[in-house]
Amino acid sequence: MSATTQLGPDTGGRFGPYGGRYVPETLMAPLEELEHAFAEASADPAFQHELAALLRDFAGRPTPLQYAARLTERLGGPRIYLKREDLLHTGAHKINNCLGQGLLAVRMGKRRVIAETGAGQHGVATATVAARLGLSCTIYMGTQDMERQRLNVFRMQLLGAEVVGVDAGSRTLKDAINEAMRDWVTHVETTHYLLGSVLGAHPYPLIVREFQRVIGREARQQILAMEGRLPDVLLACVGGGSNAIGLFYEFLNDVTVQMVGVEAGGCGTALGEHAARLAASQGFTGARPGVLQGTYTYVLQNPHGQIATTHSVSAGLDYPAVGPEHAWLAEQGRVEYTAVRDEEAIEAARLLARTEGIIPALEAAHAVAELIQRAPKMRREQVVLLNLSGRGDKDMEILAHSLGR
Amino acid sequence: MRVVGEVSQTRIARRFAELAERSELGLVAYITAGDPTLETTEQIVLALEQAGADIVELGVPFSDPIADGPTIQRASERALRSGTTLAGVLELVRRLRQKSDLPLVLFSYFNPVLQMGVERFAEQAAAAGADGVLLTDLTPEEAAPVRPVLRAYGLDTIFLAAPTSTPERLKRLAESSTGFLYLISRTGVTGARELLPAELPALIRRVRQATTLPLAVGFGISQPGHVSVLGGLADAAVVGSALVEELERAATAEAAIAAIAERVRVLKAAARHGMSQRTPARPAAQEL
User: Fold this and answer.
1) Which of residues 185-244 of A touch B (CB under 8 A)?
2) At residue B249, what are phi and psi to the nearest 5 degrees?
3) Are B128 and B42 in contact, with CB atoms under 8 Å apart?
4) Which residues of B13-50 are buried (b: 16+ CB within 10 A; e: fewer)?
5) Which is nearest to A313 in space by CA: A258, A266, A373?
6) pTM reported for the whole predicted model
7) Which end of chain A has the lower number of beta carbons within 10 A, N or C?
8) Rounded distance, CA A329 to CA A331, Å?
9) Cβ–Cβ < 8 Å for A92, A361
C-alpha cells in the first residue's frame, strides 16, 4: 500500500477506469441537476446544519464505538471495537444517506422519492425519511426479498410508503433497481430517485459516499480517544459498499491501516451461487468489468454479457455488481476483498449474540465471520474496528430456522 | 427540404433520401431478435420488408433492459431463454443481408457489445451487413471511445434524444449521430400507448433547430393515427412494442408473422396517406 491512494471521482464520475454515467438520455438532465444541487448543498452551511441536526436528533448520531470485551476474549486475538451503526433509528447505516438525499430532494423541489431495497433496510430508512420530511414515497422490492424480509415490508407500509413487488429476473435487489430506474425515467420532473448504495450513475457513488463518511469521521476520533492510536484493521461487509466506503474513506491515507471488505460467498463458488465480485482470489467465478445500471464496475455475468443471478442468505449483499470506487480500491491494492459463506455468516451472528448481546444483521454478520477467521492469526496488542452496519431483527426468521426452532 | 444522403453512402441515409424525395414518412419497425427464436425473427424481418417497413431495428436482448417497458422486457426474456446471443444476432444479420437490402439497425444496451469487444463487434457487425448501432444506455459522453470505432467500420451511430435533453445536449447528440436521430416522444420506457403527448410537436420543433439529420420519433407509437400526426412533423415513426404485442398474442409463428405484417401495412399506409405528405397543399389524388 502507498500513502498516495488515488481518490475519486473525477469530473466525469470516474474512479480510475470505473464509474461513469451509462443511462438512457432521459436521465442525463436529472443527473446533472442532482450533481449541481449536491455541489451547492455541500457548500451551504444551512444545509449542513439541518442535516447535522437530523442526524443527531432524529437518527441518533453519533453512534457509539464499543469495545467488544467478551468477543475479544473469546477469539483470543486483537482488541475488537464495534462501530454501532445498528443502534441508529431504523436499525442500519442507511438512514445517514437517506436523510442527506431526502433534504436534497426537498431542495430540488421534488415532492416524491422512490427507492429500491434488498434487505428492506434502505426501503425502511427511505420511507422513514419521506414521512419525516412530508414526501410521498414508493419502494421497489424483489418478491423473493419481500418473502424473506416480511417485517420490513410491514414497516414501510406503516410509514405510509407504497411497496411495489418486482417479479422479474431473480426477484431481488437488481430487479428492484431496474424497476426503480423505469419509474424515475417516467417521472423525472417530480421524483427523486433515492439510491441506497455507492452504485449507479455519477453522481450517486459520490453522493452516497459523502453522506456515509460520517461513520469513518466519528470512528476515527473515537478510536483515537479510546486507544490513543489508529486501528490496524478495518472490517466491513460489501454489497454495493456504502457502509464500507463510509468507514474506510477517512482512513485511506493512513498507510498503517489495513482494510478488508467482505462480500457474500453464498453457497458455492460457481456463477449463480454467490455474490463475490472482487474476491476472485478465493475461487469465486464470473466477475468481469462491465456496465450495469449506470456504472462501469466488476459485474457477475456470463460470457455474453448477460447479468448473472446471485445468491446470498443476506438480501442486502445479494447483488451482481459492486460500487465502482471499491473496484478502484481493489485494483490499487488499497483494500482487500474477501468473501464468507452463508453458514459462516449465520454462525457469526449467533456468536455475536451470545458473547456481546448483539444480534447483527446478516449483512454485518459477514464482516463478523471474516473477523472470526482473522482474529486468531493476529496479535493481542493489535486493534480491529468492525462496522456493525445493521441490526438483525429483520433476519429473525432465517436465524430462527438455523436454530432448528 | 433538407438534403440527406449526399455525403454518406449508408443504406440508412439512402433510404431517408428516397423518402424525402417522395415526401413520405418513413416507418422504422423494432423487433426483439430471438423472440421466440432467431429463425422466426428472420421470417418476421423479411415480412416487415414486404409490408413496407423502411428500416428494421433488431433488438439484441439484454438481461436488464432499464429503458424498456413490460412488453419488450418479456420479449427479451423469451429471447434469452431460447439462447440468443449477440453473435447469434450478427449471424442472423448475415443471413438477412443475403436476401434483403433493408437497412438494419442493431438496438441494444452497452454491456453485450462491451463483452464481445467494441472493435470485434464493429468489425463483425459491418461484415455481416448491419448499417447502424443504437445503444440505449450509451450517451455521447461515454461513447467517445466507442463511436470512432463504429464509424471506422462504416456503421451509423444513432443516439436517443429525450424531452429532458437541454439545448446543449441536443447539439451534442446531433453531432454524435449519423443516419438519423431517434427522438423519444415522452419521458418513460418503451411501450404502446393510446395518445401521443400534447407537447410532441413543440418538442420536435425544438429538436429540429439542433439538427439537420432525419428525425425518427418513437416510444408509444402504435396506431395509424399516431403515424398520421407525425407525417407533417418527423421523417420517420418507430413502432416496436405494438409489434411485439402482436407476436405475444399470436398462437403460432405463422400467425404472428401475418399479424405483424398486417400491422405494419396499416401503419405504412397511414404514413403514405393521411396527413403525412410534406406539402399539405398537394392534393391527395396525386399521391395515388
Assistant:
1) 185-189
2) -75, -30
3) no
4) bbbbbebbeeebbbbbbbbbbbbbbbebbbbbbbbbbe
5) A266
6) 0.95
7) C
8) 5
9) yes
Interface of B with A (CB under 8 A): 62-69, 73, 77, 80, 85-87, 109-116, 136-139, 141-142, 159-166, 169, 173, 184, 187-189
Nearest residue, CB atoms, B137 vs list A22, A299, A305? A22
Q: What angle do CA B239, B243, B245 make, to 5 degrees?
A: 130
* Strands of A17-166, DSSP E: 18-19, 65-67, 79-84, 112-117, 136-142, 162-166
- Residues of A involved in catalysis: 94, 116, 389
Count CB atoms within 10 A of the CB of residue B190: 24
How many angstroms separate the first and last alpha carbons of chain B?
Answer: 21
Report the gap between the CA of A127 and the closest CA in chain B (Å): 23
Length, in residues, of chain B: 288
**Structure-block grid coordinates of residue B82:** 431460447
| C-alpha cell of residue B57 | 431495428
Four-CA torsion A41, A223, A125, A89, nearest 10 degrees: -120
Nearest CA-CA distance, residue A349 and chain B, Å: 33
Res. A269: pLDDT tops 50 = yes
Q: Cell numbers 460500487 correspond to what residue?
A: A323
The grid cell for B157 is: 451511430
CA angle, B139 as apex, B133 and B144 as ends, to 5°? 80
Alpha-carbon distance of A275 to A240, in angstroms, equals 11
Task: Give ipTM to 2 decimals.
Answer: 0.95
Q: How far apart are CA A26 and CA B137, in angstroms?
A: 10
Cβ atoms within 10 Å, residue B249: 10
Q: Does A170 touch chain B (CB under 8 A)?
A: no
Put simply, the chain A residues between 279 and 318 with a CB less than 8 A from any chain B CB are 288, 290-294, 299, 301, 303-307
Query: Quick check: A185 and B67 CB within 8 A?
Result: yes
- The secondary structure element, H or E, covering residue B48 is helix B38-51
Whole-angstrom distance, CA of residue B109 vs CA of residue A401: 41
- Summarised one tens digit per residue, pLDDT across range A60-107 is 999 999 999 999 999 999 999 999 999 999 999 999 999 999 999 999
Residues in a beta bridge with B27: B237
- Whole-angstrom distance, CA of residue A238 vs CA of residue A252: 16
Query: What is the percent of chain A where pLDDT is above 90?
Result: 92
DSSP string, A285-329: --EEEEEETTEEEEEEB-TTSPBPP---SSGGG--SB--HHHHHH
